[in-house]
């Protein structure tokens, strides 16, 4: 499991060798925080039925919208998307990541910006906040940063 920071995300989406269709699915996994299976079934609506049959609101990103026109109507598999994302990230970043790593990266970036687990939980479609906490990857100095953020007012 690897987490991308915002600089790496820009690099990943800036790679001109990555096909638009792959960028579309990467954008859905990162910016909209969809699971691969949800991204494959996504039809542009604001509400999706996710894991466990739970409905949730989806925020369709401008990043994904850039590439939506180039999505082929043929049915791709989760495995095909995984391979595409892994190859694109290995080329752009020097190491491979999975579509789920993009989802975890989004959760981590948002948590570091907001420190609001309940909103991230809603975005990810988790029933329990403890699941959302498992998505967030902490660095060594994150606890100190949080302390300073909360008590420097």
What are the salient characteristics of this protein?
153 residues, mainly alpha, hpI Integrase, Chain A, two-stranded antiparallel ribbon, 9 helices, 2 strands, 4% strand
- Counting copies of identical and different chains, the oligomeric state is single chain
Structural class: mainly alpha
By DSSP, the count of extended strands is: 2
CATH topology: hpI Integrase, Chain A
Strand arrangement, major sheet: 1-2
What is the CATH architecture assignment? Orthogonal Bundle
- Roughly how many Å apart are the termini? 35 Å
Broad CATH class:
Mainly Alpha
CATH homologous superfamily label = Intergrase catalytic core
What is the average per-residue confidence, as pLDDT, rounded to a whole number? 88
Label the overall shape: globular
Would you identify the regions where 5 or more consecutive residues have pLDDT less than 50?
none
Helix content: 55-70%
Q: Helices and strands, in N-to-C order?
A: HHHEEHHHHHH
The overall number of domains is 1
Rg, Å, rounded? 16 Å
Largest sheet: 2 strands, antiparallel
